[in-house]
Amino acid sequence: MNPSIFTIYDTLKIVQSCRHVWVSGVRTRPITIPSGRESRMLVVAFKKGMARPFYPFPMNELTDSVVMADLVFGRSILSLRERLLTAHSPQEMFQLVELFLLNIAGDKLYESTKSNCVKYAVTSMLHQPTLFNFKKLGEQIGYSQKHFIDLFKGRSVCRQNNISRSPVFKKRSKR
């Protein structure tokens, strides 16, 4: 988080440089971003499907990309960076990032998260019904199996998505 330029490597080949703050999409191949001397990094990683409320475009547009964060979030991300540099503890840094993200997401965070998880699960079940695994799905979306089943049972979420059966029943009926 110091003012130096950070170089991004694809294996040992330099692929680009970024200043200050950047965002990266889902990676299908590894990259390396050395932090350098006397510098710190704070990384926010979202579980699959959970970043949507925070970005103004579909996340697949960032796949295998690294872009300057101000192009995505505007100048407010640079202000956040300055506040992070003066933070006195990791707890304060996390609070600043949390407030920033909550402010960006606004109502989108609460409107879409649960229904998107259900939609993602239904799509996964329909595309690969014999390979579907609730435990793996829970790891991907960030909910326990029990909590996920409760999401399916939730009347408002199910009505929004035209879902009237439990996920286990849906999986069995697809086979």
Structure description:
The chain has 175 residues and is mainly alpha-helical. It is 47% helix and 11% strand. It is built from eight helices and four strands; from the N terminus they run ββββαααααααα. Strands 1-2 form a two-stranded antiparallel sheet. A two-stranded antiparallel sheet has the order 3-4. The protein is globular and about 50 Å long. The relative contact order is 0.11. The C terminus is likely disordered.
Characteristic key phrases:
mainly alpha; 8 helices; 4 strands; 175 residues
Task: Give a summary of the structure in a few sentences.
The chain is mostly helical and 175 residues long.
Overall shape = globular
Low-confidence stretches: 155-175
N-to-C order of helices and strands: EEEEHHHHHHHH
Overall number of strands: 4
End-to-end C-alpha gap: 51 Å
Instruction: Look at the helices and sheets and give the structural class.
Output: mainly alpha
Characterize the biggest β-sheet: 2 strands, antiparallel
Physical arrangement of strands within the biggest beta sheet:
1-2
CA-atom Rg in angstroms: 19 Å
> Could you report the average pLDDT, rounded to the nearest whole number?
75
Into which percentage range does the β-strand content fall?
5-15%
Helix content: 40-55%
Query: How many distinct helices?
Result: 8
